[in-house]
């Protein structure tokens, strides 16, 4: 019996020989795959090899910023101990639109968990010149600290 698995790009691979099954209805392999699905079979789920955590603790966040040299170790300690905002992050907050500055200040100084999906995570990352992939990498690295 044939078995198939999905890829992150929605392509299908036949498990027996690693063959890619193109999304072409005229393809015989695609027809066999469609028949296999019609029999009630399901694809193996796609699990990214290194998923991005949905959230990290404030300690992990500030420690990783220090590890990357974005803030000093003392600033990381102060942020975790008393909620002091590191100078580099304060500059970013000051550069945000006025309507976002208070929320960003509250989040940076008071959050005990940083959510990857929070809109300010993306805004602050972008203001620091970070790409989405770099933000994901920061969250991955911080999650193992």
Secondary-structure blueprint of this entry?
Layout: E1 4-6, E2 12-14, E3 20-21, H1 28-38, E4 55-57, H2 58-67, H3 73-82, H4 87-95, H5 98-110, E5 113-115, H6 119-127, H7 132-143
Antiparallel strand pairs: 1-2, 2-3, 4-5
Helix pairs in contact: 2-3, 2-7, 4-5
Can you tell me about this structure?
The structure is a single chain. This protein has helices at 28-38, 58-67, 73-82, 87-95, 98-110, 119-127, 132-143; strands at residues 4-6, 12-14, 20-21, 55-57, 113-115. The model has no long low-confidence stretch (mean pLDDT 86). The chain is mostly helical. It is elongated. The strands form two sheets. Strands 1-2-3 form a three-stranded antiparallel sheet. The protein has two domains: 4-38, no CATH class; 55-143, no CATH class. Helices cover 51% and strands 10% of the residues.
């Amino acid at each position: 019996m044939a078995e198939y698995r999905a890829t992150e790009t929605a392509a299908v691979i036949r498990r027996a020989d690693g063959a890619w099954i193109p999304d072409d209805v005229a393809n015989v392999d695609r027809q066999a795959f469609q028949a296999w699905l019609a029999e009630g079979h399901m694809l193996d789920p796609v699990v990214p090899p290194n998923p991005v955590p949905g959230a990290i603790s404030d300690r992990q966040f500030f420690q990783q910023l220090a590890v990357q040299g974005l803030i000093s170790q003392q600033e990381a300690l102060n942020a975790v101990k008393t909620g002091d905002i590191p100078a580099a992050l304060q500059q970013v907050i000051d550069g945000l639109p006025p309507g976002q500055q208070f929320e960003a200040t509250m989040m940076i100084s008071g959050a005990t968990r940083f959510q990857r999906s929070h809109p300010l995570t993306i805004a602050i990352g972008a203001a620091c010149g970070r790409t989405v992939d770099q933000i994901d990498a920061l969250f991955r690295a911080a999650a193992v600290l």
